[in-house]
Specification:
- The complex is a heterodimer.
- Chain A is an all-beta fold.
- In chain A, strands 2, 4, 5, 6, 9, 10 and 11 form a seven-stranded mixed beta sheet that branches. Chain A has a four-stranded antiparallel beta sheet with strand order 1-3-8-7, with no helix packed on it.
- By secondary structure, chain B is mainly beta.
- Helix content of chain B is 0%, strand content 52%.
- In chain B, the strands form two sheets. In chain B, strands 2, 4, 5, 9, 10 and 11 form a six-stranded mixed beta sheet that branches. In chain B, strands 1-3-8-7-6 form a five-stranded antiparallel beta sheet, with no helix packed on it.
- The chains are: A mainly beta, B mainly beta.
- At the A-B interface, strand 4, strand 5, strand 9 and strand 10 of A face strand 5 and strand 10 of B.
Chain lengths: 112, 112
């Protein structure tokens, strides 16, 4: 079964540092997403991406965040100048028009 | 009012029990509805879509009441492996590639 692959599985970073979370979506999917889940809280939408541009973003997705599809396979989330409150699980997902979402196994980001 | 609201539980039931979860959503324009399952510190996984006519998948039955903006999930003959958090999820746009809005989840523990 096709998978969405995320790396790293766990990242620890110092407050103020930049981090890049990486994802390889399913190869024939066209829509890509980032969600996050702070420990003990609900899964929250951050951003969706289609045709090489952001199609929708939440109010959480401010100037600190950016996404990129640098080549034909990777999809990245960059967080500039991380804050303690950015500590969360970050899930990448991809979908096609017909069969819906597949989520990756997540990157646990810890900001210290 | 929260966009998607669930009773957080926890529900603690013996093996073989029947358990029901409820969910309400605030946006009457919502088009697609799902139940996801999330194991501790793992990604959400689709359990089943929810249709107006109601649908069943083995021991799981989902119902949707659009007039009341209410979704339910019934699990019959609970197994130990059903222990997880059950997430009520709504897609306002109704496409298979639109943004998903998650409830906080209902925790289920099935004990021997």
């Amino acid at each position: 079964e096709p998978e969405v692959t995320q790396t790293p599985s766990h990242q620890v970073t110092q407050m103020g540092q930049e981090v890049i979370l990486r994802c390889v979506p399913i190869s024939n999917h066209l829509y890509f997403y980032w969600y996050r889940q702070i420990l003990g809280q609900k899964v929250e939408f951050l951003v969706s991406f289609y045709n090489n541009e952001i199609s929708e973003k939440s109010e959480i997705f401010d100037d600190q965040f950016s996404v990129e599809r640098p080549d034909g396979s990777n999809f990245t989330l960059k967080i500039r100048s991380t804050k303690l409150e950015d500590s969360a699980m970050y899930f990448c997902a991809s979908s096609d028009r017909f069969y819906g979402y597949t989520f990756g196994s997540g990157t646990r980001l810890t900001v210290v | 009012r929260k966009e998607v609201e669930q009773d957080p539980g926890p529900f603690n039931v013996p093996e073989g029990a029947t358990v029901a979860f409820n969910c309400t959503y605030s946006n009457s324009a919502s088009q697609s509805f799902f139940w996801y399952r999330q194991d501790c510190r793992k990604e959400p996984k689709l359990l089943m879509s929810v249709y107006s006519s109601g649908n069943e998948d083995g021991r799981f039955t989902a119902q949707l009441n659009r007039a009341s903006q209410y979704i339910s999930l019934l699990i019959r003959d609970s197994k130990l492996s059903d222990s997880a958090t059950y997430l009520c999820v709504v897609n306002i746009g109704g496409t298979s590639y639109g943004k998903l809005t998650f409830g906080q989840g209902t925790i289920l523990t099935v004990h021997p």
